[in-house]
Amino acid sequence: MIRLTDIVKRFGDLEVLRRVNVSVREGSVTALIGPSGSGKSTLLRCVNLLEFPEAGELVLGEETVRFTGRPPERETIRRVRRQTGMVFQNFQLFPHRTALGNVMESLVVVLKWPEAQARARALELLEKVGLAHKADAFPAQLSGGQQQRVAIARALASSPRVLLCDEPTSALDPELALEVVEVLAQLAREGSTMMIATHDLRLAASVAHEAVLLEAGEVVESAPARELFTNPKHERTRRFISTLG
Ligand code: ADP
Ligand code: MG
């Protein structure tokens, strides 16, 4: 479903991803864990082609992109981006649009859906994240947890093949983080495919099927999440997990 093979990404002289291999099965959730600066965000951004790796290959559904050092074709980028939804640490909602407006935006603007159809779909998604009653609220009128749930609904609007979440609970107090974890856990139960970069052990342990530990741009260990968290094979994994809250 998603396969990243031998991904190399450099920023100038800095090699941020060093032949990274990660696969995510359809309907499964992979947690990317690792210290700050290990390359988690960059790897997610390679999946939706917000970054272009120098080498390696991305398979996303029927799409195969081989990286050669030149940017992929515009059409390829467009097709890949349409199959991904992204959720950011700091929500990144449009402040001047309501919750409903935020979720409708890409359907109306990018996919050119008729207004009424986009509205119905957006309401359905707000319902799914438990926020139908906040459809007309602006982001500033919502808690952080509610804003992130709107952001998740927005990312799901175009029915992406994969939901990419970059530290989705890191900006939230534990209590508000929990409501986001619960929404992501529900999506996981429904068979959504996700890659989640996170420091949140509760999130990783309760939502992910697989876990990948990155360190300095390299995969240290990749295993079923339960196994990686309870019985890591590598000393570096054990040490890293002991630092997580
Ligand atoms: P993580 O998400 O695991 O904290 P990142 O993927 O954000 O790690 O960053 C990995 C490394 O790449 C870090 O050393 C970071 O400073 C560097 N980096 C990330 N984005 C850029 C960029 N646009 N330009 C230069 N260096 C970057
Ligand atoms: Mg990051």
Describe the structure.
This protein is an alpha/beta fold and 245 residues long. It has helices at 40-47, 74-82, 99-109, 115-128, 144-156, 174-189, 201-207, 225-230, 235-243; strands at residues 2-11, 14-24, 29-33, 55-60, 63-67, 84-87, 162-166, 194-197, 210-215, 218-224. The strands form two sheets. The protein has a six-stranded mixed β-sheet with strand order 6-7-8-3-9-10, with helices on both faces. Helix 3 packs parallel to helix 5 (144-156). The longest helix has 16 residues, at 174-189. The structure holds adenosine-5'-diphosphate and magnesium ion. The site of adenosine-5'-diphosphate has 10 residues, from helix 1.
Write the layout of secondary structure elements.
Blueprint: E1 2-11, E2 14-24, E3 29-33, H1 40-47, E4 55-60, E5 63-67, H2 74-82, E6 84-87, H3 99-109, H4 115-128, H5 144-156, E7 162-166, H6 174-189, E8 194-197, H7 201-207, E9 210-215, E10 218-224, H8 225-230, H9 235-243
Helix pairs in contact: 3-4, 3-5, 4-5, 5-6, 6-7
The site of adenosine-5'-diphosphate has 10 residues, from helix 1.
